[in-house]
Structures are given as structure tokens and as C-alpha cells.
Design goal:
CATH class of the largest domain: Mainly Alpha
CATH architecture of the largest domain: Orthogonal Bundle
CATH topology of the largest domain: MetI-like fold
Structural class: mainly alpha
Helix content: over 70%
Oligomer: single chain
Distance between the termini: 7 Å
Order of helices and strands: HHHHHHHHHHHH
Strand content: under 5%
CATH superfamily of the largest domain: MetI-like
């Protein structure tokens, strides 16, 4: 397994380089001048220095090479400087946002905790709910629980976040006054009281995201369980006298998780992009909201870096899914 994971990581390098090149060349076609927002009072020589710092006026391949060096060479050294107090990158040129004129990675790192608080919590909650619901719905097929679960998941599939978000705000913020309608990104958790405040402002965006994820995962889990419950190995296990709990929870659930693992692993990077609408509704200054703001501002370095991060997450979690296959099914070998 270790050798397989190493090979996959090595092969992912040219894949990511090709993806980054395609993204960069596509973004070069976008219209607009990043210096258009600079005040007229700025002297021309200062504008020229700003253009040189941003890499403007150079051939696209030269700009792409500079971006690669900054992302894969300069930024890791910046992290080392931060972690160990060194100064290897003093005066080095980093990836600069055209909108804020500050390093892109610094802005992304500032936004990541907000996304993890909301999106990460929603994904964990959805998995913890969806898998048991899918298992029990399949085991009690056509029962009242199964019918209710089907009805709720159809709602989760059908209603988009831009509808459920304002609906929850109207009900729980305006009418009942239970939760704040706007997510306070400046709030810092320092004690139990501040944690409760953080929890209260997370509930509604987490509910919106978790509803969609739960609807998808529970349907996959139910379908996979129904397929495995009719297999010969289940009848053999029951004929040998194994208890129903062991048959279902040990044998059937483990085999049923194999296709669901793909959906869960690939959904991790996808949910960051899918949280754009939810973050806009609840004013969460996360990665999704940062991407949409950069697109509107024509901030190509920010869009380029964020899109590349999404590509890295997709490649990484593809590898995680393959490794989990081998752990769940002993018949799968990567030798």
C-alpha cells in the first residue's frame, strides 16, 4: 500500500502541473486590467513598479513560471520562516493579489478557519447522520422510517441553498430570534461562553449544507446496502448462525461502504466550491466567498491559486479513496 501511495503521489505531480497550466492559460483570456483600480494620484513610475511586482507586461509563459516558483518554492519557505523564525524569504516576491495588493496565501490562510468551522462541521454531521439513516432505511425497506427518510432526502435534493438559507433566516432569526442571521467572522473562541456563541452562529449554515450532503450520502448508502443484503454471503452468514447485528453491522455495512467512500472522499473538495452560495447568504468570509469576490474583482492570482488548491484536493482525496478501498475490502490489493 505504501509503494502504491508513493507512485500515485509521484504521478500526481505532472497531472497537477498540467491542470495549473490549463487554468493559467484560460485565465489569461479574461479581460480587464488589475491596475485600473489604482488611484489617479499614484505617480506613473510607482504604477510601473507595481506592474513589475505583479508580473504584468511579460509573456504568459514567463508569468506562469514565476507563479510556479512562487507557489512551490517561495511559499513553502515562507511557512518555514513562520514556523522556525528564520528569514529565508526576506525580500522574495510572493503571489500578490491584484485586489488587496497583499500575499494571496496570507489571505487564504486567514479564511480557512471560517470554512473549516462551517463546511467541515457540516460534512462531519452529514456523514454521522447519513450512514446510519441509509443503513436502517435499507434494512427496514418500505417501512415508515424508510418512507420518511426518502421524503426528507428528496427535499434536500430539490431545494437549493439560496432558498433554504433565507428560509431559515426568516424562521429562526427574524420570527423566533434564536440564532444570528449574519456569521461574525471576527468572533474568537476563548472560553465556554464564546464557544456557545460560535455554535449558535454556526447552526443555520451547517443545517443548510448538511441537509444537501445527508440527502446524497444516505441515498447512496441505502442503495449499496440493498444490493449487498441480497448477496449469497449474507445468506451464508445467517445460515451459520451469526447474529443479525453481526451480519448487518460487520459484513454488510463494511462492503456497502466501498462505493460510498468514493462519494465521501470526492465530496470533500467539492463541498468547498459548493459552499459559495451558503457563505454568501450567511456572510461567512470563507474560501468560497473569497473565490466569488476574486472573480468579480478580476483578481486572477487569487482565482488561479484557489482553483489550483481545489485541484490538489481532488487529486489527494482520490488517493485517499483508493487507500480506503484496500482497508475496507481485503480482496483489493495494489501490489
Amino acid at each position: 500500500m505504501l509503494s502504491y501511495a508513493t507512485r500515485r503521489l509521484v504521478l500526481s505531480i505532472p497531472t497537477l502541473l498540467f491542470i495549473s497550466f490549463v487554468i493559467f492559460m484560460l485565465l489569461q483570456l479574461a479581460p480587464g486590467d488589475p491596475m485600473a483600480q489604482v488611484p489617479l494620484t499614484v505617480p506613473p513610475e510607482v504604477k510601473q513598479k507595481m506592474r513589475e511586482a505583479l508580473g504584468l507586461g511579460e509573456p504568459p509563459l514567463v508569468q506562469y513560471w514565476k507563479w510556479l516558483v512562487q507557489v512551490f518554492w517561495t511559499e513553502p519557505k515562507v511557512f518555514i520562516d513562520w514556523a522556525f523564525g528564520t528569514n529565508m524569504t526576506e525580500g522574495a516576491q510572493r503571489v500578490i493579489s491584484w485586489q488587496t495588493r497583499s500575499p494571496v496565501m496570507d489571505i487564504i490562510i486567514q479564511r480557512i478557519p471560517q470554512t473549516l468551522w462551517v463546511v467541515g462541521t457540516a460534512y462531519i454531521v452529514a456523514i454521522l447522520i447519513a450512514i446510519p439513516v441509509g443503513v436502517y432505511s435499507a434494512y427496514r425497506q418500505y417501512s415508515v422510517f424508510d418512507q420518511a427518510g426518502t421524503f426528507v432526502t428528496m427535499i434536500g435534493f430539490s431545494i437549493p441553498p439560496f432558498f433554504t438559507g433565507p428560509l431559515l433566516i426568516v424562521i429562526f432569526s427574524v420570527q423566533l430570534g434564536w440564532f444570528p442571521s449574519i456569521y461574525d467572522t471576527t468572533h474568537v473562541v476563548t472560553d465556554w461562553a464564546s464557544f456557545k456563541v460560535q455554535l449558535s452562529q454556526m447552526i443555520m449554515p451547517v443545517m443548510v449544507l448538511a441537509l444537501q450532503i445527508t440527502a446524497q450520502l444516505s441515498r447512496y448508502m441505502r442503495a449499496s446496502m440493498l444490493d449487498n443484503l441480497n448477496q449469497d454471503y449474507v445468506r451464508t452468514a445467517r445460515a451459520k448462525g451469526l447474529s443479525e447485528a453481526i451480519v448487518v453491522n460487520v459484513h454488510v455495512v463494511r462492503n456497502s461502504l466501498i462505493p460510498v467512500v468514493t462519494v465521501i472522499a470526492l465530496g470533500v473538495p467539492a463541498i468547498f466550491g459548493g459552499a459559495i452560495i451558503t457563505e454568501q447568504v450567511f456572510k461567512v468570509n470563507g474560501i468560497g466567498q473569497l473565490l466569488i469576490t476574486a472573480l468579480f474583482a478580476n483578481d486572477l492570482p487569487m482565482v488561479m491559486t484557489l482553483t489550483f488548491i481545489f485541484a490538489v484536493l481532488i487529486v489527494l482525496f482520490n488517493l485517499v479513496a483508493d487507500i480506503l478501498y484496500g482497508l475496507l475490502d481485503p480482496r483489493i490489493r495494489y501490489d
